[in-house]
Amino acid sequence: MEAFTTHTGRAVPLRRSNVDTDQIIPAHWLKKVTRDGFEDGLFEAWRKDPGFVLNRPERQGATVLVAGPDFGTGSSREHAVWALQNYGFKAVISSRFADIFRGNSLKNGLLTVVLDQQTVDALWQLTEADPGTEVTVDLQAREVRAGEITAPFELDENARWRLLNGLDDISLTLRNEDDITAYEAQRPSFKPRTLPV
Amino acid sequence: MGRTLAEKVWDDHVVRRAEGEPDLLFIDLHLLHEVTSPQAFDGLRRSGRRVRRLDLTIATEDHNTPTLDIDKPIADPVSRAQLETLRKNCADFGVRLHPLGDVEQGVVHVVGPQLGLTQPGTTVVCGDSHTSTHGAFGALAFGIGTSQVEHVLATQTLPMARPRTMAVTVEGELPDGVTAKDLILAIIARIGTGGGQGYVLEYRGPAVEKLSMEARMTICNMSIEAGARAGMIAPDETTFAYLKDRPHAPQGEDWDAAVAYWRTLRSDEDAVFDAEVVIDAAELSPFVTWGTNPGQGAPLSADVPDPASYEDASERHAAEKALQYMGLEAGQSLRSITVDTVFVGSCTNGRIEDLRAAAGVLKDRKVADGVRMLVVPGSARVGLQAVSEGLDVVFKEAGAEWRHAGCSMCLGMNPDQLAPGERSASTSNRNFEGRQGKGGRTHLVSPQVAAATAVLGHLASPADLTDTARTPAGAR
């Protein structure tokens, strides 16, 4: 996983709530068997509208998505995170994220930042008034800064440590392989098995 | 202090607990399908890792599979390539696979329970958010992303933060004609699509205890639509009776030991939930969605709501956008909404009881002119059972299309899709924009409402069908 320390970039204000994973990346894109090449599928249906915020010239090259509450609801497809990253987003800000999407984002180095809706509103106003506004998402200081706005955010220390160092979860877990083996040895015999042993 | 059901199952699976770290949780059962696994197997190959526990892993094909002409090569080359990738991965790594055409093939969340692999007190994961279905057995079951699929393949564990718990207590008794689907749609409308975020839901109370296993699966299935990764129901005699003698259920002494353990899997009297919601079952009636998220629902007897009636600006805005997308007017009655397509199937409502319920309404009746009705069993076995009961004949005589098992029109990854602007009544779980096909419009309903809607051509419940709508068998 790519490490995330701090990032500064222009923003895309997405004034929608309940942005579900079918909007982020429609199901027909899920037939691909790679982790890349999803950028054209990002918000595919909405991008057919030339007025959609992502299509506006002043938003080209923006890297911070500021969305309404309940972002990433719906399916567990990690393709939603890959699509946002393939397109160029480094961070997403919302007042509420769906659990699975949030977990997937943090495992891929896409920083999802929870700020209260009042701050999200302020970021929308600021970045709509001046699309050139730069937003800084600082994981070391755990704060978002833009214009006059400075907003602290929370992220559990373990997730932050993994992100700051770009650590691979599987390698970390396998450091405790003895614990796994010990657990396996004491599992009851009535637990289901898919294969004869 | 006592513990909740979720806490008991959690505690029994902690491999390692350390200050400042997520718990490392052992996974008893890992279900795989073609869509969310290819990148995980690639990751294993790149790092030279194997599948740690082949005996706790099983795969099937469901999302991409066609429901017609399954003996012919799959027409869509991209779908075919994805299925072939799963077959190669399973062969290379030694994973048990039930491919298209196999008698155990079907929607992964129908296959696990029917094989008896889903058992009380187990942890179950799959790269699919509707893994919550398996919680109906008192399992802790949740959807995971592809990175976590790779993690489980390699380690049979997952690092997870301990969730909070919410009791969803359903008092009283469901009135006649009100189903598990109506109940869960009403719960989601009450707590919202984000209401369950961070929680494991436990459905309890007299109305839940009376439900069959299949109805319980319908409830737990849609926990994710309320924002909760997992939903659970304490196992009881209904659960044990369902499991007894299934292919992978414990046998002999193991069965006795298992049941003794399963009986301990109830929230203690003095357990404290982090939140509680109480629903009065007696107040419920057939429930349908009008909007573009599963929380935008109302009783079938109601009208399409006026967005102006929402105090919250974000909800108001969402309702306006939903009505625009759905092509509906505020104030029109839900019963006045006409549909082009009716879909009966999915991991929510594709089991045998669902097909029986729909067939019971359709028997000696006809699907309305201009309405296309698809009936897709949740698994090949469900399909065979339906055929043995003659349900396929009921569907075909009514003018519905009887198809082969798979996810089908729930998400339209195969050819079963809505055309732009088309409207469906669907027994599936998501009414998101474009979910069933680009520009398609979805109303989520129960199998009974789906069948009545197919007959009348507009959203309706079986109570709306007059006796004259039934054609005596001899008159055809």
From TrEMBL, chain A:
EC number(s) on file:
4.2.1.33
Keywords tagged on the record = Amino-acid biosynthesis, Branched-chain amino acid biosynthesis, Leucine biosynthesis, Lyase
Q: Does the keyword Electron transport apply?
A: no
InterPro entries membership: 3-IsopropMal_deHydase_ssu, Aconitase/3IPM_dehydase_swvl, AconitaseA/IPMdHydase_ssu_swvl, IPMI_Swivel, LeuD
Among Gene3D superfamilies, the record links this protein to: Aconitase, domain 4 (3.20.19.10)
**Class of this enzyme:** lyase
The record ties this protein, via CDD domains, to:
IPMI_Swivel
The reactions it catalyses are: (2R,3S)-3-isopropylmalate = (2S)-2-isopropylmalate
Question: Residue limits of the Aconitase A/isopropylmalate dehydratase small subunit swivel domain?
Answer: 1-117
Q: Which family does the record claim for this protein?
A: Belongs to the LeuD family. LeuD type 1 subfamily.
Protein task: Catalyzes the isomerization between 2-isopropylmalate and 3-isopropylmalate, via the formation of 2-isopropylmaleate.
What is the protein name for this chain?
Answer: 3-isopropylmalate dehydratase small subunit
Automatic annotation (TrEMBL), chain B:
- Which InterPro entries does this entry report, sorted A to Z? 3-IsopropMal_deHydase_lsu, Acnase/IPM_dHydase_lsu_aba_1/3, Acoase/IPM_deHydtase_lsu_aba, Aconitase_4Fe-4S_BS, Aconitase_4Fe-4S_dom, IPM_dehydratase_rel_enz, IPMI_cat
Its UniProt pathway annotation is: Amino-acid biosynthesis; L-leucine biosynthesis; L-leucine from 3-methyl-2-oxobutanoate: step 2/4
Entries under HAMAP family matching the protein? LeuC_type1
Q: What is this protein called?
A: 3-isopropylmalate dehydratase large subunit
Q: What does this protein do?
A: Catalyzes the isomerization between 2-isopropylmalate and 3-isopropylmalate, via the formation of 2-isopropylmaleate.
Q: In terms of domain of life, where is this protein from?
A: Bacteria
Q: Which reaction does it catalyse?
A: (2R,3S)-3-isopropylmalate = (2S)-2-isopropylmalate
Q: What is its EC number?
A: 4.2.1.33
Species assigned in the record = Streptomyces tropicalis
* Residues where [4Fe-4S] cluster binds: 347, 407, 410
- Record Gene3D superfamilies: Aconitase, domain 3
Keyword line: 4Fe-4S, Amino-acid biosynthesis, Branched-chain amino acid biosynthesis, Iron, Iron-sulfur, Leucine biosynthesis, Lyase, Metal-binding
Q: Which gene encodes it?
A: leuC
Q: Which cofactor does it need?
A: [4Fe-4S] cluster
What lineage does UniProt assign to this protein's organism? Bacteria, Bacillati, Actinomycetota, Actinomycetes, Kitasatosporales
Q: Answer yes or no on keyword Signal.
A: no
- Annotated Aconitase/3-isopropylmalate dehydratase large subunit alpha/beta/alpha domain residues: 7-457
Similarity comment: family membership? Belongs to the aconitase/IPM isomerase family. LeuC type 1 subfamily.
Q: What quaternary arrangement does the UniProt entry report?
A: Heterodimer of LeuC and LeuD.
Region of interest called Disordered, as start-end residue ranges on this chain: 418-442
Q: Which Pfam families does the protein's record reference?
A: Aconitase
Metal-binding: is it a keyword of this entry? yes
What GO terms are given for molecular function?
3-isopropylmalate dehydratase activity
Describe how the cofactor binds.
Answer: Binds 1 [4Fe-4S] cluster per subunit.
